[in-house]
Write a structure and sequence with these properties.
This protein has about 90 residues and is mainly α. It has five helices and no strands. Helix 1 crosses helix 2. The protein starts with a helix and ends in a 5-residue tail after the last helix.
Length: about 90
């Protein structure tokens, strides 16, 4: 793992921990230890981190769309207009 990749992983881990643990926990130090141990135990392997399941989000968007609230839903879910329309047009998701 390159130094840059290691730092990116550590930052991602820090963000996850910061949002998941009480503020009294030193998440920067914890993230550094976790990344170091992951590199020692799994270094050299390809890691696959799956994207979250977006089916519930997409179903909520289709349910909440009333024909006039596209911009509000795009802001709420952080979507581009083109992605919004892809979701709306998908009647039978996978």
């Amino acid at each position: 793992m390159t130094t840059e990749a290691r730092l990116l992983l550590q930052q991602a881990m820090t963000d996850v921990l910061r949002h998941s643990l009480p503020s009294s926990v030193p998440v920067n130090q914890l993230a550094a230890v976790v990344v170091e141990q992951m590199c020692r135990q799994m270094g050299g392997e390809a890691w696959y981190i799956p994207a979250p399941d977006r089916a519930p989000r997409d179903a909520a968007i289709r349910r909440d769309f009333n024909g006039r609230n596209r911009d509000a839903l795009c802001r709420q879910y952080g979507l581009s207009r083109s992605r919004f329309y892809e979701i709306i047009q998908t009647r039978n998701p996978r």
